Amino acid sequence: MRTATSGEASGQGDHCREGGFGLIEVMLAMVILAFAILGVMGMFQWAEHGLRQGERATRALAMAESRLEAKRTTPWKALLTDDLDADGTPEITMRDDGTHPDAVAGDGIYSAGVEMDGIRLVWTVQPDRVGSLRSAGSVVIQARASYPAGRGQRREIRVGTLRANPAYVGVR
Q: Which of 135, 139, 153, 161 is most buried, by CB atoms within 10 Å?
């Protein structure tokens, strides 16, 4: 007569295994982990690209708004000059002569521009009537900042405002 072994007594019979994972299971887990890490690395690259784009867009917007605010607060008689480094001496005189960044000579739109850290900033002053700036009742001030967006493309941010001549009393 045969006596029952501990495996047979518990109902496991000849199918008894020791606890733990086999080599195939461990290898499969490592392959799955490798694919998960590759996916996460791709997401980090995508997120980094998005953060760089956001940083450029924010810097471009800040530059455009800063130039617009400087034009808004400058005295009317100095509206066509710019002191970029705040030392009291204007470095730029806006022109309407067709040279870069002015698009068309004599169109009544005065333009100036600079490029810093890959961001091109162009600002314009357009009087409401032809003639000297003193005779204008108001001007439209615009600032455009363009920045690289990848793959050879550029994006542009535009801001603008209308400013009234404080000394204007109407047509004389």
A: 139
